[in-house]
Model the fold of this input.
Amino acid sequence: MPVHSPPRFFRLRSFLLRTGTRNPEEVQPAPVGTPAGPGAIAAPGSRGQQSLVSAAAALLERSRHSLLARTRVTATVEGTSLRIAAFEGSRLESWVSLPLNGHLARPGQIGDPIEFGSFLDETFHRLKLPRDRVAWALPGWNAVSRVLDLSGVPDAELQRAIDEEVEEVFGASADDGYVFWQRLAGRGRVQRVFVLVVPRATVLTALEALEVAGIRPLSMDLRPLALARGIGRMNAIAANLEEGCLDVVIVAGGIPRVMRSIQLPAAIGIETAQARLVQEIERALAYYDDLYPEHPLSPEVAVYLTGRLATGIALAEDVCRTIGRPIGRLAFPAEAPPDLPGAEYLVNVGLALKRW
Done:
């Protein structure tokens, strides 16, 4: 099967923070066993009863397909596990975390795309998940974002100007990665553009694995951006810690201004990993201050701790003491059961909140 062009799966506006979902129409099937008309109910063994049974079976099958058609599946590699969550509308119906061993994955990313794709194929088959309404999270390694001021650049020259800025600011050619950009609202003649550069290898590895699994995703998004969307705040600092990897995202004015995704040593202990997370929050904030000195973050902007390893009172106290900011409380915009380990599935929630 050919690998489809990534622009089909990436939608420019989906990289900006969105918090709405479109609820599909509820399909109300007719009650099974309702007579189709005069003569529909017949003696046992007659052709009329067989027709009624066949019609009822067909109706049940259509109802099952209708339910599957409304189901949206979100999937992400978090640390050394695959986390899948299924949604109907904004309601989270089910979730599962599966360990990834051997060559299947490295912390936070796909390892061997062929082996991983085969594992994904078996998983979707076993869990009876639809494959045509899937959102996939990409790791944020070496992905960069920036808000560029391109005031005065004519529309006809905007793409060329963006390519030049990418090469100058990011130190990479537009051919080295996939470049996505979106105009931001501005006043007067001010023209600001949100630019995101994603390494080609990150995208193509995911697409190869998904093709092996027979999945053509309706949506793909960076994990740091899904985290920011899942938090759903106009101003926030997201700090995510999983086995072998961490992410820090600073959101200001509804725009992800700074993203840091770091791979951690394999044998690192949880206390050392948490200390590294605090250090990376400090670095991200210092970088933000350098980039946007005219837009300082309010000291009231909170830090939101997410991920399986970003837990415990000691870590929260360390963040408050070192960073000097409050810890934010996660409030899930999606309808979620009370027993959901929400901090571990925030990426899935963020994927579901994007308009597909």
